[in-house]
Amino acid sequence: MRLALCQLNPTVGALDANVDAILATAQQARDAGAALAVFPELAVTGYPPQDLLDRPAFLDDVERAVARLVAEAPRGLALLVGAPVRNTAPTGKRLFNAALLVDDGRIAATTFKQLLPTYDVFDEYRYFEPAPPQTVVTFRGVRLGVHLCEDMWNNREEDPYQLYAANPVDDLARQSVDVFVNLSASPFAVGRPAFREGIVRDTVAEHGVPFVLVNQVGANTELVFDGQSSVWQPDGRKAVALRPFAEDFAVWDLGNDENTANAVETSHWDVSTAAPSGDAAHPSSNDIADALPGDAPVHPSMLGADLHAARTDGRDDVDDLLDALILGVKDYFAKQPFFKKALVGLSGGIDSALTAAIACLALGGERVVGVTMPSRYSSSGSVDDSRALADAFGLEFYRVPIVPAVTAFGQMLAGTADSATDATGGDRVGDAVIPGGPTGVTEENLQARTRGVVLMAMSNAHGHLLLTTGNKSETAVGYATLYGDMAGGLAVLSDVFKTDVYKVARRVNERLGKAAIPEPTLTKPPSAELRPGQKDSDSLPPYDVLDPILRAYVEHHLDVDGIVAETGTDAETVRRMLNLVDRNEFKRWQAAPGIRVSTKAFGAGRRFPLVEGWERKA
Amino acid sequence: MRLALCQLNPTVGALDANVDAILATAQQARDAGAALAVFPELAVTGYPPQDLLDRPAFLDDVERAVARLVAEAPRGLALLVGAPVRNTAPTGKRLFNAALLVDDGRIAATTFKQLLPTYDVFDEYRYFEPAPPQTVVTFRGVRLGVHLCEDMWNNREEDPYQLYAANPVDDLARQSVDVFVNLSASPFAVGRPAFREGIVRDTVAEHGVPFVLVNQVGANTELVFDGQSSVWQPDGRKAVALRPFAEDFAVWDLGNDENTANAVETSHWDVSTAAPSGDAAHPSSNDIADALPGDAPVHPSMLGADLHAARTDGRDDVDDLLDALILGVKDYFAKQPFFKKALVGLSGGIDSALTAAIACLALGGERVVGVTMPSRYSSSGSVDDSRALADAFGLEFYRVPIVPAVTAFGQMLAGTADSATDATGGDRVGDAVIPGGPTGVTEENLQARTRGVVLMAMSNAHGHLLLTTGNKSETAVGYATLYGDMAGGLAVLSDVFKTDVYKVARRVNERLGKAAIPEPTLTKPPSAELRPGQKDSDSLPPYDVLDPILRAYVEHHLDVDGIVAETGTDAETVRRMLNLVDRNEFKRWQAAPGIRVSTKAFGAGRRFPLVEGWERKA
Prior knowledge:
With 618 residues, chain A is α/β, with parallel strands linked by helices. Chain A is built from 18 helices and 19 strands.
């Protein structure tokens, strides 16, 4: 029996467009001789639909969309497709997360998800009732072990601590299955694809049955899905490997390896040309050659990445990181109708340079606008490096010095300089001109906020989406100004530590075969340039010391003792950094959404109280 | 047997202070002859601890705190106290939400929570394993039906749709109980206390057993807990009623009604004077008399509130709303060490006036700083009304006209005015002086953001916490400027619709017995004053039309058809408002935390995708 793996990129909530894409791909699958076309988890709604699932009107529309899908699906093949389904029992959550077997104008079988991820960015028990053990689906005599995403992750080999008592894969195996079929919406994080693959391989090895995994691809708000749908054979071979970070399609014949090899070699399918609708729900593949003027892309090459070992397919974690960020920006624009161009404040530093570069790779340089906003403390290099970057990427470029507004604010605020003393109502009213005005951190923030006002005015006037440029290291310790450099609609790098920002930036230049991100930007000491001679290292440890501390704390939940043991940094420094992270929850509460590329990003998947009194003893 | 109801106000994470308060109150209970002192759910950590529960170091500290509590608890009485407890099973979430019976230096019994609220602001399945049915706890021969908060809410009488298959209260009743004891951390929302009370009354009526409910009080970040712990008798009488929105304490004798009545009359207990620690974890009662200079408080009186019927104890929903907001501000300051004073931008309008008034009621006028920031479009009344408010509440007051900075921005931005055309890299660099500059919405936002910069500079310079003033109606439709009037650390009114803002403001004046909020502020047409003659009604329906639409959509998940049927407003207007709500998720993503006073506030309890493609058909 021939199966089609349909790795689509749905837009959350875009029910009509998502069903159109499913129907078009099903037709493609039938034309390719498939008997069964497999789609991702919640392919009808896109993942994650979040609180749209709380709206009865949305659920009514989902039912209508599923009814249309059933009615219009091509005959002669069946579809296995993810959708939310109402729970008709008198108790429990109102929905199940389901896989529907659509065959010949009806829903022939339904499988409900049993294990509901409710941690980090996942909130599935908020909406769905966990299902009891499910039964094998028999289709044309083949026993399909259908299950959904998390159902396969309760895996003893990969994680000794099991989050759930049930093990749906084992339960299915006990019923005898010919092939496991997993419908996933499994988001990307660095290292996650290899972990996911390990689970599939373990399962195949344990049960001696082939495994088909179809994963969502594309970005929805904070989450990026990497696709990489696959088929694994009991002998340990990967029979099908769909592309990372792009829509893709392949067919595979259960029990016929010759045909399988063929599928891997030839059936990659560019949805951007093949899909009939061609609308925003179906962005073209994120091949960077499309996005750049003139330069031929350099084939991904190895970097001496000290983060993780390189992967066997010639890609490494830095490639994954860069491609995930590009897709995150691309889909953020492609899936909303309001903004066509990206706006970036360029400081001459590495973060804004990489943010602009990624925007150019995602959207094309002609859809990116850069602004340099020198202050009295800016080095001439800041403007020169920003201009060189703009030239290399072909982006629209402006220079708006901020001195006039900063001066005006200084004069306006002089009258409020000593408000801390014995004031009572009325006495201090007036446009006082007490000498003085903002100094220190107040003045630094004032400059950053003046830039924020300039950028937001340009965003408002021209309808550009402002990208914010802070990296994960800065975001962690609060080395950023709320409403200043934190202003913007999408934080491209907020889940990328500073040391990784450099690696990704160098990879951009390697791919482009030129120093598009200027060498001085890559080599000069990091500085906010908010006071004379300021360097990040005045306030923080060097980033190669800081980042391992932050990663251990934020991503692995270690505390002072464990981090000292792991990093060798002194306890006093570690404690000071951890306290900075804690104290800056209030800034992150108001931060722009970021693109999640780690297993613990700032954003919706990390939920700390703003007001709390825990004092670490260590 | 004498029970003590210990209605405490823990600070999330402040383990030492929370245990100190529990120990001090236990001593008080023993001195009052109690055999058992009952505390709220998760009293050791405070509720909700959120992702602090993901940190092993925090969990280690919790275990140490519980061990100290057990060791130091006064002998001769037992404590029933809420704390997270590790799950020692090989599968499942790592914690249980537990009630510990601490008796004579050991944990004599443990009851785990079965029903884990995972909706709205609740994320309990993120951390806790749901427990199987629990057994009755026998203490000194009395069969205690111990359970935790949500365990009692799966109530057929109050809600025909049951979220859970299990019913812990029924399960306990089947084992025969002498008294139900519920440890709660049940947050306030308008109407919620009456609903909660209804469930208790139904349970008592159904099972014929008295019911002791001990609820947390106080605010933690977004959530306000109203307390109102109580004892209900099988004959339908409320035997004990602890205060709303304040710490409180009472003893009650199981099976002795005389004593019970005594408890209700006399044993109210002001923790602010009685507790030994007296630190920030134990704010004094929110009696408004403490906070105001000179004026004697007016006893709460009835308002002709059309929202809901008045409650039988002489308080109504407007009183609850006002007291919840006061407590929300008070505890936000009391439970963090960084800010002593509140800063409010005063526009002369009702929202900023009420925000400042609530801050004064919570903190005292001497801890509130007001700033009026007139623009060229501000009416003279704006400044006069702001000054009158400042005089009435005795707050520090400044006037900072924004024209100089707005003018400077206009000149700076003139060179960017027509960036939409054929620009390429480099060509447009320079300090261009193209006539023009920001107009329309850009100019309106520029004024609001200039004010935001002024206020944040004052916040930075003096360490004041900026309160943001937007109400729920504005926040819903996006009638607010990101980084402008949305700037601030706490949004006092973001869960209060505009029509309710007026009611609460009038209630403030009634309580104070004078027009502290000036009459012109209460009666003039709402205006943002960002262009000549601007009125809110230019862009939006009148608030008495708008608010019912928004309430039905945001709080009750109705859509166009249902809202037209319920409100009688035309479908076109309703659809336009609903689309405005959807389109402004991006602003709310970056909004300051608000004080939750409804069953569906903007904030952590409402999770919509920013990028989504649902188009309503209706």
